[in-house]
Amino acid sequence: MTYVVTESCIKCKYTDCVDVCPVDCFREGPNFLVIDPDECIDCTLCVAECPVEAIFAEDDVPADQQKFTALNAELSKLWKPIIERKDAPPDADEWAKIKGKLDKLER
Q1: 68 assigned to some structural domain
Q2: CA of 20: how far to CAs of 7, 70, 83, 88, 103, in Å?
Q3: Total number of domains in the chain
Q4: Residue 56: per-residue pLDDT
Q5: What is the mean pLDDT of residues 19-48?
Q6: In-domain check, residue 88
Q7: How far is CA 51 from each of CA 15, 34, 70, 98, rounded to the nearest angstrom?
Q8: Any idea what DSSP says for residue 8?
Q9: CA 91 to CA 45: how far, in whole Å?
Q10: What whole-number distance in Å separates Cα of residue 60 and Cα of residue 93?
Q11: Given CA atoms 79, 80, 83, 86 in this order, what sign does their dihedral have?
């Protein structure tokens, strides 16, 4: 089992999770993070660090977020690793409250 970053991360892109990842499995896109399922060791450390509760165990991804499992796998092959925490976008707190952001995902 691996962990999956879901829609809540879009345009929020807090990187607190990156700091605690022991294997550097996070990949960074323009406005979203993903987890490389081939690198993730299922340690669960990132889940508690995400301030918008965007990270789920693969088996626990909500039904309306299932597409993000494949999206993480796909984008993790295209995006570069992120290994250090960065500042969140200035409007991250505002975006954190918005649902239905998949159309805002920048590849």
Answers
A1: yes
A2: 21, 23, 9, 16, 29
A3: 1
A4: 98
A5: 97
A6: no
A7: 9, 15, 23, 14
A8: G
A9: 25
A10: 24
A11: negative
Residue 26: inside a domain: yes
pLDDT for the residue numbered 88: 95
> For position 34, which CATH number holds?
3.30.70.20
Least Cα distance to 8 among 80, 82, 64, 84 occurs for 64
Helices then strands, each counted (H, E), the chain: 4, 5
- Domain membership of residue 104 (yes or no) is no
Residue 11's contacts (CB-CB under 8 Å, 6 or more residues apart) are 31, 32, 89, 91, 92, 95, 98, 101, 104
Locus of tokens 């993790």: 76
Q: Which tokens in the block code for residue 56?
A: 């789920």
Q: What angle do CA 99, 3, 46 make, to 5 degrees?
A: 85
The residue type at 72: N
Judge whether 39 and 79 are in contact, CB under 8 Å. Answer: no
Domain carrying residue 39: 3-82
Q: Residue 88 corresponds to which tokens in the numbers above?
A: 């969140």
Give the model confidence (pLDDT) of 50-84 as tens digits. Answer: 999 999 999 999 999 999 999 999 999 999 999 99
